[in-house]
Amino acid sequence: MKIKNIIAPNMTEAFAKVREQLGDDAVIISSENTADGKVQVTAALEDDFELSFDDRDEMEIIPVQKNWSDKYLRECLEYHGLVQTVGEKIMAVARQISAEQNLSDDKIILEKTLNRLFRYADILDVSQPVKLFMGTPGSGKSTAIAKTATQAKFRKIPTCIVSTDNVRAGANKQLEAFAGILELDFYFCKDEKTLRRTVDEALRKYRLILVDTPGINPFVASEVDRVARFAEAVKCRGILTVDTGRNTLEAVEIADIFAGLGADCLLPTRLDLTRRIGSVLSVAACCKFCFCAASVSASIANGLAPIDSSSLAKLILNQA
User: Fold this and answer.
1) Do 224 and 282 belong to one domain?
2) Is residue 134 part of a domain?
3) Contact 228, 218 (CB under 8 A)
4) Per-residue exposure over 80-104, b if at least 16 CB sit within 10 Å of its own CB, e if not
5) Is the pLDDT of residue 310 over 80?
6) Which residues make beta-bridge pairs with 294?
7) What is the pLDDT of residues 173-200, one digit of tens each?
8) What are φ and ψ of residue 40, in 5° steps?
9) Judgement on whether residues 229 and 267 belong to the same structural domain of the protein
């Protein structure tokens, strides 16, 4: 059987080419419109001789471009309220991936797009043992630390908790109580010198050191300087906790200030209490943050979940 893919401006010309190339006995197997508005038909002609496996007789295979409508994805991104340039970038890469890989499934296209645009990390990665948590007051830092410590306990990773928060009343007692429940060592450091010494000693004993810093107003220079001194005192990975429901533009502005303090990992909090994730997507894109985990419920034991392109795609597509 000879099979031929033929592209023509319209169906009439396509049939004419079929007859010209295969003869009047050819049978049309399928037809469809291409992305540029032309017609592609696949035609076949039965042979009256045995098939030859000579390479010269192999049929030419022309890839068929599936028609992908980006309408639904565009509506979803608008619903989530991303910074406009970020939404446009996602759409542009999605269209490129659809064309390059001949894809038409929204979820697959979006997953591949998010995988290309964003970075992902494991919050329990012990190759960078010191994790310094930063954020504004009420962003969920202390709870995120407790959840991280719980996950480390489950994985049997030797862990300790260090607090530098000498501002918020009761902050140290709360973290110390969590450490006691988990049977983890707890340390309090009032200044950067004490922090440096404590961390140096802790690295000999623990594989993971979780450091809490005071919640600050990033628009007040003196408060920013307080956290900057702690961040500069130790070699660490800076983790920014961001309330998912925060105003998008404000979240990006705040994250940019914390990026200047060394934060490069994003941990969205209260993900279960909001339907729109435009703020965290915009923060990650605009400030070059990688995702390391997400707080998905109030549960300390099960409230922290890994985050990747697949989970983000589900949130974007299913909540609109």
Assistant:
1) yes
2) yes
3) no
4) bbbbeebbeebeebbeebbeeeeee
5) yes
6) 305
7) 888 999 999 999 999 999 999 999 999 9
8) -120, 125
9) yes
